[in-house]
């Protein structure tokens, strides 16, 4: 008898692999009707989730390295969950590497990856240089970069699963131009400079197309405490912009607390948008407007792409850059 | 003597890492003069590219498995940082395993650990049963459990780096008894039941010693959204206790938001303590009182303990249960 796999369930329910995995995992981002359809398919086929590992245990073990910055652990949790779930489905071993200032540099990690002869690599963006990626390419180690977009440099063995942050910032800026607002600030996040550069580029493009210049790029320290202290000082002599955009939740909340305590009201005096969503944005009053980014899916898709690259699947040969969708989620810190 | 790396060669020859790698790999896209310069540098420094493989054969690489629950990834980030930094110092390979409901059970992870013949294991608490730990013990795999205290069951190969949550809750409760307050609630966290049981036991001990009975153990859903919804309903018919204790930040903030919106004031109507600290507890108004727990140190100490267990260090033979200190950090949600 043919062993029932998660693929059969996905096919039967007409949903993606990631969706089946999410239903099994009790994730609450699945629509109720989808969940029911998946559960029916599981029942109908007699699928048993734990049969996966048993079935695959006979074949050769594939080992994949995941590399990320220590400082971004907490922020990358959902992407990692997606990566790990799909890795588990394929029975991959995961070698975990972290980079941290002063303790482990990316170049040491690359060397360790080459030495341990892993089959493939998942890199979170912002951890590596072009040069280091070329080394992995020279050793013919299939690599997928997850997070933001990398330069298309013709490196065939490097896939990319990304959010187009440049386009996101471009659209955001134009939305405000349409309302006649051009007083927009972007708050720097030093932990994530490649994403910041893409957001900045998108804003600059929108300003330029409207015959203006984007100037309000606010740079300050990376932690909540210091950014809160900085902004408390800042608001003694400055007014907030009409629109403030931050990358991470802690910067958005620092902005809101410091601004409110300086006598400004969100969203009346300043609208606030935090690009990366987190549950904490729903815990503030008012709730912070944000973007819905499919983080879990990004991880799941990245690992799935790597599995295809590992077997030299023709379908991904010239098709290994995957642009993930996002959507704007206005809440209480914006007027639109 | 410092080990010569590919980076030293690149520096010496004044070329990129990628170029050195191409020369080593006999790629023909390198210009002849560059190739010669790189080869000279290799010779001068005594760099041995193939030493990697030879080295692996002679001195065995130590591989350690880290096992944690997917759902607690974000919460364990600092402990993981401590683990990874010390692992890096010892040049360990880290195999990363996660457990997640329906997709990977602990028993599958254990099986995979045994199969891949890792040298040692770090387990986060709440991921395993006594039985599973005994399996690791049977295979003589040194294991360190990090987080809360495990039963002392005479399993020699299992170390433990922990916070004594029972004692913490006992002291907390007695502090309120001294102020004449015994209306204390403890809010359940389903993601972390072994820690919850220890907190509950500590409260029960304090109540019992004072001739009373602890009854206010509040059980509800694990996510912020559902707990906020639950509490909003709850406060329509109930008053909050004089003192509310939660384990994680999202539960504390749910409590504060729902309570405030129901017309109660923190700390006047209800004092609030969140046992596990996070930066988000400083972003609320008022700031939430908490405990300072040395999370990074717990990870670092756990990995260091494992390194000693791996070499059968005598000093840890009967001394591998390490009780980490904590201290109370009153802020604005408590009156003391």
Automatic annotation (TrEMBL), chains A, B:
A GO MF label: transcription cis-regulatory region binding
Keywords linked to the UniProt accession: DNA-binding, Transcription, Transcription regulation
InterPro entries registered for this protein in UniProt: HTH_LacI, LacI/GalR-like_sensor, Lambda_DNA-bd_dom_sf, Peripla_BP_I
Domain HTH lacI-type: 4-58
Leader sequence residues: none
Gene3D superfamilies documented for this protein: 3.40.50.2300, lambda repressor-like DNA-binding domains
Name of the protein described by the UniProt record: LacI family transcriptional regulator
Organism: Catenisphaera adipataccumulans
